[in-house]
Each structure stands twice: as C-alpha cells, then as structure tokens.
Design the sequence.
C-alpha cells in the first residue's frame, strides 16, 4: 500500500466528485492497491473506483489479458464517463521481467494498437471528443540486469 495519497485521491477530494469520476483499470489485480494509502488522514478516503485483474486486490488469481483490460476500459469509459483514469496494461513489463524478447516486443506493438484504438474511441465519444488529454507513459524504464 502506498504511504501517501495518490493524485486521484487528491483530485476526488478537491472536486467533491464520487468514486466513479476517477478510475484505476489494470490487467494486474495487485494494482488496485494504488487506490488507497496508509497515511492515517487519507486511508480509506477519497478512493477512486477500481477494476484490476481477474479478481482484484488480494485475490491470488492470474493477470487478465491486456485485450480484456482494453475492452473493460472502453466499457467503463462509456458507462461512467470518468474525468480522470489510469489504465495499466501488463505487457510489455510482464514479458520484460521474464526476459522474453519476442513477447516483450509484441507487447509494445499490441499496446500501441490499443492506445490508437482508445484514442479513436475517445474522439468518437461526444463527451470526451475535443475535451480529453491522453498521457502515455511506462511504469519504469528498461535497465541492465545488474541495475
């Protein structure tokens, strides 16, 4: 569990919106932990909604495929029209940690396509079109095995 509140918690408190205005959607169930923190004045407060992995936080289950996370993202964006969303795909991080170069590079290509489709989806939605900023980043960089 993170020590300090997340950007999503700060945003929900400042805007006084309900939890469905901010989402964490991830292929890895363990990332649901990002919705809260251990800081006593924030713990359990202003938590965004989550849809992470097959079973969510605390469930020992396999990661879901990124294709399922992509489809779930579109579903939740359509249903709730949240204003701030973090979407995390497991590839290529997963295969990178397994030193699987073929799946790592395929993951980069697949995620690039999902992002392209996600942008087209956003631009075709009357609420999001022309009114949305999309940031794309990785969770960490590549590094040597010894670092």
Sequence:
């Amino acid at each position: 569990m993170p020590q300090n509140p997340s950007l999503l918690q700060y945003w929900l408190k400042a805007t006084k919106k309900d939890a469905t205005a901010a989402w964490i959607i991830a292929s890895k169930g363990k990332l649901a932990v990002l919705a809260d923190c251990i800081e006593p004045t924030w713990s359990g407060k202003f938590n965004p909604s989550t849809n992470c992995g097959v079973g969510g936080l605390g469930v020992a289950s396999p990661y879901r495929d990124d294709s399922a996370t992509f489809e779930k993202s579109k579903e939740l964006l359509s249903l709730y029209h949240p204003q701030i969303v973090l979407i995390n795909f497991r590839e290529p991080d997963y295969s990178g940690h397994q030193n699987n170069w073929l799946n790592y590079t395929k993951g980069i290509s697949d995620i690039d396509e999902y992002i392209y489709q996600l942008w087209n989806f956003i631009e075709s939605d009357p609420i999001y079109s022309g009114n949305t900023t999309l940031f794309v980043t990785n969770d960490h960089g590549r590094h040597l095995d010894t670092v």
Remarks:
- The chain has one domain: 7-124.
- The chain is about 35% helix and 10% strand.
- The first strand starts at residue 22 and ends at 26.
- The longest helix spans residues 101-124.
